[in-house]
Amino acid sequence: MSSTEAGYANDVLVSADWVEARLDEFEADDPELRLIEVNSPESPDDDFPSRYDEGHIRGAIGFKWDEDLSDPVRRDILDKEQFERTLGDAGITEDSTVVFYGDGWVANWFALFAYWEFKYYGHEDARVLNGGKDYWVNEEYPLTNNSPQFSPQTYSARGPFEGIRAYKGDVEHAMDSGLPMVDVRSPEEFTGEILAPEGLQETAQRGGHIPGASNVPTATVLEDDGRFKSAEELRSIYEEHGVTSDQAVVTYCRVGERSSIAWFVLTELLGFDDVENYDGSWTEWGNTIRAPIERGE
Question: Is the pTM of this model over 0.70?
Fold first, then answer.
């Protein structure tokens, strides 16, 4: 199903066939087209830290979410200078068409966080492989162990564009104003039964959710094969939770990566005008003294 057939607001998803037809271009030194696999060592798969090395799409650059796209000292995304240097060193320019893909518990988990970060710094032509790496592998598209070597480029970021990012004060405003907030964590995290998915570090001292938030787990928006549901289905899912395009919306999770998928769906696939991803998420809120929380459904 194409983006047009699915009724998406923006043509930002590409198919596995589309990527396969351009493998030579992805592998070329010309920075016009770049492919990025985004992973993190946090995974239920013991081999995850080396998964890129074990096989990736030809021409793909390997980024780790916590090492290449985050500042571990500040527990933040890269600042503008770090972002520009990272992308330039990888052979990417602000004019490159960049296609993201990844894996995880759900398709493109960390790839969509990278997409959101690129948009925060104003990268214009960014796209996503629908279904991610799991779909690519399950459908038996080719992999390689060869890593590309691209000539360094100069990258000049236009951002940051703060309108797509929520801070704690923005969340407090949404809570006080009754604006919709989408918590994409598992029901067990939402109710406070657990603090983090099994196998991941517990980054908060308290469990629960932000008062007024609705629980729409990440996998809800995906088909069984990891590709996104149609716009009609997605719109219906969010409308059931009172999330409509005529309101500002905040998305959050544990550290801002799963919620970037909801941000992507609402912003890019459904065309909402005012959606902010709270990348501080439950790690910040659940550790903040006197921050109100709710437990249970």
Answer: yes
